[in-house]
Structure to design on (340 residues):
DNA sequence: CATATTTGACCGGG
DNA sequence: CCCGGTCAAATATG
C-alpha cells in the first residue's frame, strides 16, 4: 500500500514537473508526449495496484524498482532514440530552447505578501504612502532560468508562448545589458497565491535569444483543459505527503532521471526544483552544485490550507474560463478567496 | 467598459 | 548610494 501511495505521489510530482516545465516543453511534442506517458504509466500502475490490492499484498520493493526502471526506459518514443540523449541534443544547439536551469534554493515565505497591492485597497485612499510595500524577502525563491530563442515563426520576437498568461508589470534597464528586462506575473493574479512570475531579457550578444527566468509556481493551472487529463479522483490523495521517504539518493542531482522524485514532505504551496534531469542543470548562479535538496522548510505553520484548495480552485477557474461567465470581473470571482 | 501595457517613482537589499 | 524589482497612475487596446 505504501508503494501505491508513493506511486501516486510520484505521479503527482511528475505532473507538476510537467507543469513547471511546460514552457520549455511546449515546443517539443516529443517530450510532451513522453512526459504524459510517464504520468499515465505511473497512475495506471497505481490504479492497477489498487485494484489488485484486495487479492494480495503489494509486490516487493524489487518489483517496484523494476517498475521504475521500466518507466524510465520504456517511454522511448517511436523514434528509437533514448529520450534523454535526444533531448540533450535537442537542447544543446539546434533547438531554440537551450535550456539551463538556474536554481536557487528556496525558502519561501508564501503567505505574507499582501501588503503589496493591498496597501491602497485596505487603507482607504491614495493619500500619502503609508507602508508602501513590504519587500518580501527574496531570499531563496526558486528560480529557473531558461534560454529560449525567439521562434522565427514569423511572429513577434517576444518569447515563445509558454502556455501561461502573463501580465507585464515592469521593465527595467539592466546595468550591463543592452536590452531591458521585462517583468511578468501570472495574469490570474486574482489568485493571490499564484506567485508565478517571470522575467524576460534578450541576450546582448544574441538578440534572437531570450533568457527567461521563472520564479514561483502557478497555483492556477493555465486556462482550461489542463486538469482534464487526470481524473480528479486520481489526483492528489488529499492526504498530504507523509514523510514518505523516497531515498533522497540525490547529491548527484545532475544525473538524469526523468522522473526524479524527491518528495518534499511538507511542500509549501509551491514546489521546489521540480525538473527532469533531461535538461542541463546548471547549478546556482555560481555555486554550481547547490543541490536542490534540503527543503529546510522553516515554517510549516500554515501551509496546509493553501494547497488543498488547489484542485477545487482549478475547477473553478476552469469553469469560469469555459463558461462565458457573465460576471464582470475575475477579481469578483476570485474575491472570495483572496485572503487579504 | 474591462483589461493589458507603459513608465517613472519608489523601495530596500547589498 | 546604486541597482534591480515592484508599484501604480496613466495610457493603450479590444
Amino acid at each position: 500500500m505504501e508503494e501505491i501511495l508513493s506511486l501516486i505521489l510520484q505521479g503527482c510530482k511528475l505532473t507538476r514537473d510537467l507543469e513547471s516545465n511546460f514552457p520549455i516543453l511546449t515546443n517539443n511534442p516529443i517530450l510532451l508526449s513522453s512526459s504524459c506517458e510517464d504520468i499515465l504509466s505511473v497512475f495506471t500502475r497505481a490504479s492497477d495496484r489498487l485494484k489488485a490490492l484486495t487479492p494480495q499484498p503489494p509486490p516487493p520493493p524489487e518489483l517496484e524498482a523494476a517498475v521504475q526502471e521500466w518507466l524510465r526506459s520504456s517511454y522511448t518514443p517511436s523514434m528509437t532514440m533514448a529520450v534523454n540523449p535526444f533531448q540533450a541534443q535537442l537542447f544543446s544547439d539546434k533547438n531554440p530552447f537551450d535550456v539551463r536551469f538556474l536554481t536557487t534554493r528556496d525558502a519561501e515565505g508564501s503567505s505574507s505578501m499582501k501588503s503589496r497591492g493591498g496597501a491602497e485597497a485596505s487603507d482607504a485612499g491614495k493619500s500619502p504612502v503609508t507602508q508602501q510595500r513590504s519587500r518580501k524577502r527574496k531570499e531563496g525563491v526558486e528560480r529557473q532560468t531558461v534560454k529560449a530563442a525567439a521562434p522565427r515563426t514569423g511572429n513577434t520576437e517576444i518569447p515563445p508562448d509558454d502556455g501561461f498568461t502573463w501580465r507585464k508589470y515592469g521593465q527595467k534597464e539592466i546595468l550591463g545589458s543592452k536590452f531591458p528586462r521585462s517583468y511578468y506575473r501570472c495574469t490570474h493574479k486574482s489568485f493571490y497565491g499564484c506567485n508565478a512570475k517571470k522575467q524576460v531579457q534578450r541576450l546582448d550578444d544574441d538578440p534572437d535569444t531570450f533568457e527567461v527566468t521563472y520564479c514561483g509556481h502557478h497555483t492556477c493551472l493555465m486556462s482550461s483543459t489542463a486538469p482534464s487529463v487526470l481524473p480528479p479522483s486520481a489526483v492528489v490523495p488529499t492526504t498530504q505527503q507523509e514523510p514518505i521517504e523516497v531515498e533522497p539518493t540525490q547529491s548527484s542531482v545532475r544525473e538524469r532521471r526523468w522522473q526524479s522524485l524527491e518528495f518534499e514532505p511538507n511542500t509549501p504551496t509551491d514546489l521546489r526544483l521540480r525538473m527532469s534531469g533531461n535538461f542541463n542543470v546548471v547549478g546556482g548562479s555560481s555555486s554550481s552544485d547547490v543541490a536542490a535538496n534540503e527543503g529546510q522548510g522553516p515554517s510549516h505553520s500554515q501551509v496546509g490550507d493553501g494547497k488543498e484548495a488547489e484542485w477545487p480552485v482549478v475547477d473553478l477557474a476552469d469553469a469560469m474560463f469555459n463558461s462565458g461567465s457573465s460576471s464582470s470581473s475575475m477579481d469578483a470571482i476570485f474575491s472570495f478567496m483572496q485572503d487579504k
In short: Confidence is low (pLDDT under 50) at residues 56-131, 222-329, 331-340 of chain A.
